[in-house]
Amino acid sequence: MKVTCLTFNPFQENTYLLHDDTKECVVVDPGCYDRQEQEQLRKYIEDNGLKVVRLLNTHCHIDHVLGNKFVADTYNVGLEIHPDDEQTLRSVPAYSSNYGFAQYAEQLPASYLKEGESIKFGNTELEVIFAPGHALGHVVFYSKADKTMIGGDVLFQGSIGRTDLPGGDFDTLIQSIKTKLFTLPDEVTVYPGHGPETTIGYEKKYNPFLR
């Protein structure tokens, strides 16, 4: 599996395109908001001959959902989220203008993810892992074969997700990291929702929140 990161919007959110040699592609957390960002995403997909087959959200804070409707409409795919985060998604229109996103277009989920579910595309398989604490319905996507995790805003290089937003809880987040993420092999690469990638082993050893 190849992981392509495109960073969008003023929150510098990492949007991920997951694809393999079959050219089937999954879009995770599209943060593209304006036309230029949408075109950047579309051009990468077109230039690489990719076929978008699924649209996933790790969680539904505004910076991770700005491009959901664009991707859903452009590639005729339904949005998939964990059911516990639907209220997070539905709250976005109430505050989007306050953050400067007056043109936010809502895309509601077509189906729901559950812990332990396998997401298959091309020759790739991802496991859905439920990891709340930053958001009520936060999930991460783990490829055992590739030793890769798309982690959203749970674990960052040297840091963790914020817990001062609605649905956030510090103790729950720490528990999620220790029981769900730190049980994975040390060599697993974590691709977070913001900033550079890291590894499980590095964060076990150096993350100041988790010593």
TrEMBL record:
PANTHER family: HYDROXYACYLGLUTATHIONE HYDROLASE GLOC
Cofactor(s), by name: Zn(2+)
InterPro entries per UniProt: MBL_Glyoxalase_II (IPR051453), Metallo-B-lactamas (IPR001279), RibonucZ/Hydroxyglut_hydro (IPR036866)
Keywords associated with the record: Hydrolase, Metal-binding, Zinc
Organism domain of life: Bacteria
Lineage: Bacteria, Pseudomonadati, Bacteroidota, Cytophagia, Cytophagales
Chain ranges of the Metallo-beta-lactamase domain: 12-194
Protein's UniProt name: MBL fold metallo-hydrolase
